[in-house]
Design a protein that fits this description.
single chain; Rossmann fold; 5-stranded mixed beta sheet; elongated
């Protein structure tokens, strides 16, 4: 089976701007499905039934007729053309079927986060029943593209997104040469108890979309608003984030708790109570599912520190880190 990295390399790095860039749940956006192999009538009906297993709607996906068999590049070129002719077609996302008998499909996203801070064309593989949800979750910011690429790596043994130069110029799991908790270059993990956290990112870090991935001060948000116990999920997710990205500060996190994050109690800062180096040293940095589960089972305790607003959160986090370093320096000298 061709890898998604190989398939990405058959496509342009960046997509053109669509004629109808605005999307939303009220517009009745359709997700186009391209079959790269010949399907029987039963195969077509089975495919559409599998794609519509969720509750998005029975007509969320539409199979492009008379398109088989062709290449993914031809599907991409066709999609780039027809999305400009019909505003009901999702402009940034489509699904492709590469094997008639497979339980998985390809999803292509034209707004994936690129290594240079700009959008790139990304390809991932997922279960058929999850495909249209991928597009919906990307639209509202519930889950980001790199999370989906991580899931692909875990389920299908694909290449890690962190070693793919399309997404990262440097592997964030490898410590930076200038990485230090004493300087203002560490990355902070943040989580959201409210939906669509990416809408807050420009308040947290103005101009972040123009920065390369390895120069952004906040990682991808941990979106936990869907969980019955979001705080347990935060405790579970944080060690995994630290394992993946060595630049993340191990001792402090930021949490969006209010729909209006830029008010006095819009966001909270928590101290993470654990010996990160000791805990993570017990686990190899590997993408196996069992290892990921072991990392997530660490679940360090959290201690509330203070409230803050989004627009000053980065400055405040840097102040806390700097003050703690000065304190530890004094203790060391004594």
């Amino acid at each position: 089976m061709t890898t998604t990295t190989e398939l990405e390399n058959t496509l342009p790095l960046k997509a053109s701007t669509p004629a109808h860039p605005q999307i939303g749940p009220k517009k009745g956006i359709e997700c186009l499905v391209y079959s790269l192999v010949k399907l029987t009538l039963d195969g077509t009906n089975g495919l559409l039934a599998a794609l519509h297993q969720d509750d998005i709607g029975p007509r969320a996906c539409r199979l492009v007729k008379d398109f088989q068999p062709r290449s993914l590049r031809e599907a991409y070129d066709h999609h780039s053309r027809v999305r400009d002719e019909d505003e009901t077609i999702h402009p940034y996302f489509f699904i492709a079927v590469e094997k008639a008998s497979s339980d998985s499909v390809l999803v292509v996203y034209l707004k994936a986060p690129g290594a240079d801070g700009h959008h790139v064309v990304g390809v991932s593989r997922c279960a058929i029943g999850e495909a249209d949800l991928v597009g919906a979750n990307l639209d509202v910011g519930n889950i980001d593209w790199i999370e989906y690429k991580e899931a692909e790596e875990e389920k299908f043994g694909s290449e890690s997104p962190y070693t793919n130069p399309r997404y990262f110029s440097k592997d964030p799991r490898v410590p930076r040469e200038d990485d230090s908790t004493t300087s203002e270059n560490c990355v902070y993990a943040w989580f959201s108890l409210v939906s669509r956290p990416l809408r807050f990112k420009s308040i947290l870090e103005p101009g972040w979309t123009n920065l390369p991935e390895d120069r952004r001060r906040f990682g991808y948000p941990g979106n936990v608003h869907r969980y019955d116990d979001p705080w347990s999920e935060i405790r579970s997710l944080f060690p995994r984030m630290c394992q993946v990205n060595k630049a993340i500060h191990r001792g402090i996190i930021l949490v969006a708790e209010n729909e209006d994050v830029d008010v006095e109690k819009g966001m909270s800062i928590y101290r993470v109570l654990w010996d990160a180096e000791e805990e993570l040293s017990k686990l190899p940095n590997n993408s196996g599912q069992s290892r990921q589960q072991e990392v997530r089972s660490i679940m360090p305790e959290l201690e509330f520190m203070e409230w803050t607003r989004a627009s000053v959160a980065l400055e405040r986090l840097d102040q806390i880190v700097s003050e703690e370093f000065k304190t530890s320096d004094i203790v060391f000298e004594i």
